[in-house]
């Protein structure tokens, strides 16, 4: 991490620069941005496409300058599954490589390949955001990634520490319909707040004796979204000096879907405080798990029912024999298999593979499965579900309904309940 003395003088200069220059510019990603907060999943242009981007350092022209970022694509990337997208902004005199090598503030190992990560590189290793250039970079990277990869537009997030926290705050102010939530660790208003009147889910984390950016600066950022999100104003409890603990408060009265959370810890200017210790440690800090819980609470809303694909079905003449008087076996020319992806206390993630086992192209499919008692689907991607408990039907999404012989696709979901019992009675029919 950067030494506090370096940060103190450099951040003071950044504050002067901010006061003397224009703030972030308005704008954004256009129509696709609205999906972030209107509760409807929107598939990006990259869904269903063979990706050309790969993990690693990427270059991009933004505001007439050559800029760069580090991209991390999940292992086993599925082009038909919309993924969460998280931007991690580095601190002053830090770098994109610092963020990537530290697991994007510790979120990478918690993501279980559910998330695309981006670590942009700031000019002069900071985020002055002069004339909105860093917001434009955020827009340009988002556009490049989403045009090539499958992103759930209701699941875009940003976070950062110190100057990176300031940039995350600037994104929340200026792109409230783009990002679902932000986390600001030990931040201040150094990168501007263009707009700053619309609600965004907000999590602030700050040390009570921060010697670089006083905790009052972090409280001020927090209170912007306490107001915007309609929360009940309060003075959250904070730990005492010497307690070596942290206190996390969730505000009451906030608009549905726009929580504000505040964590104060007994410590100085660090992104990785450890309860019971005065020594920061990236691998032992509590911040990563709390940030991941905050971000992952925002489940993707099932899209509205869409019309099944209108492709003309095969023109072969159906058999003319009298149908049997008992119901035919379910399944048809496709098969569905389930695998458990991850489990945790009170919830689990599953994936279903749909395969065309016939000799003709499938034009649409429907999978039915039975959830055990106490299980309920909370989010689902790459399909459209009817029902969330008991017997659930899942129809193909608009982009993965056509399957050639021997081809397959997947849909995934998260659910509450005990994941030890797998869904039973899986059947697949077409269309």
UniProtKB/TrEMBL annotation:
Domain CBM2: 327-431
Swiss-Prot/TrEMBL keywords: Carbohydrate metabolism, Hydrolase, Polysaccharide degradation, Secreted, Signal, Xylan degradation
UniProt biased composition (Pro residues): 305-331
GO biological process, one term: xylan catabolic process
Superkingdom of the organism of origin: Bacteria
Main location, first listed in the record: secreted
Molecular function terms, GO-annotated: feruloyl esterase activity; hydrolase activity, hydrolyzing O-glycosyl compounds; polysaccharide binding
Signal peptide boundaries: 1-24
Family the entry assigns: Belongs to the faeC family.
PANTHER family in the record: FERULOYL ESTERASE C (PTHR38050:SF1), PTHR38050
Function text: Involved in degradation of plant cell walls. Hydrolyzes the feruloyl-arabinose ester bond in arabinoxylans, and the feruloyl-galactose ester bond in pectin. Active against paranitrophenyl-acetate, methyl ferulate and wheat arabinoxylan.
Name of protein: Poly(3-hydroxybutyrate) depolymerase
Species the sequence originates in: Micromonospora sediminicola
């Amino acid at each position: 991490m950067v030494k506090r003395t370096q940060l103190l003088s450099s951040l003071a200069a950044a504050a002067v620069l901010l006061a003397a220059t224009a703030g972030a510019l308005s704008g954004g990603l256009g129509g696709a941005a609205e999906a972030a907060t209107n509760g409807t999943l929107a598939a990006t242009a990259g869904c269903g496409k063979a990706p050309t981007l790969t993990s690693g350092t990427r270059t991009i022209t933004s505001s007439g300058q050559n800029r760069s970022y580090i991209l991390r694509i999940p292992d086993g990337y599925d082009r038909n599954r919309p993924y969460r997208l998280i931007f991690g902004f580095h601190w002053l005199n830090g770098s994109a490589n610092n963020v990537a090598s530290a697991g994007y503030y510790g979120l990478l190992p918690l993501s279980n390949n559910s998330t695309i990560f981006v670590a942009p590189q700031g000019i002069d290793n900071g985020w002055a955001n002069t004339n909105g250039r860093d917001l434009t970079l955020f827009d340009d990277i988002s556009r490049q990634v989403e045009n090539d990869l499958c992103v759930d537009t209701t699941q875009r997030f940003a976070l950062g520490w110190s100057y990176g926290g300031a940039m995350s705050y600037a994104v929340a102010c200026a792109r409230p319909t783009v990002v679902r939530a932000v986390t600001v660790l030990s931040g201040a208003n150094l990168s501007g707040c263009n707009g700053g009147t619309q609600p965004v889910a907000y999590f602030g984390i700050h040390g009570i004796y921060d010697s670089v950016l006083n905790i009052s600066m972090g409280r001020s950022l927090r209170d912007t979204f306490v107001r915007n999100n309609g929360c009940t104003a309060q003075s959250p409890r904070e730990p005492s000096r010497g307690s070596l603990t942290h206190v996390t408060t969730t505000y009451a009265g906030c608009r549905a879907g726009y929580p504000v959370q505040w964590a104060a810890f007994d410590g100085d200017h660090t992104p990785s405080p450890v309860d019971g210790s005065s020594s920061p440690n990236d691998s032992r800090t509590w911040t990563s798990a709390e940030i991941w819980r905050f971000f992952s609470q925002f489940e993707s809303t099932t899209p509205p029912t869409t019309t099944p694909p209108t492709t003309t079905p095969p023109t072969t003449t159906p058999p003319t024999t009298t149908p049997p008087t008992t119901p035919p076996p379910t399944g048809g020319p496709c098969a569905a298999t389930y695998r458990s992806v991850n489990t945790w206390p009170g919830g689990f993630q599953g994936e279903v593979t749909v395969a065309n086992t016939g000799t003709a192209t499938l034009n649409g499919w429907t999978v039915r499965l039975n959830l055990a008692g106490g299980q309920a689907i909370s989010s689902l991607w790459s399909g459209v579900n009817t029902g969330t408990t008991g017997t659930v039907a899942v129809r193909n999404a608009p982009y993965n309904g056509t399957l050639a012989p021997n081809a397959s696709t997947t849909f995934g979901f998260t659910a509450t309940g005990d994941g030890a019992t797998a869904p039973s009675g899986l059947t697949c029919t077409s269309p």
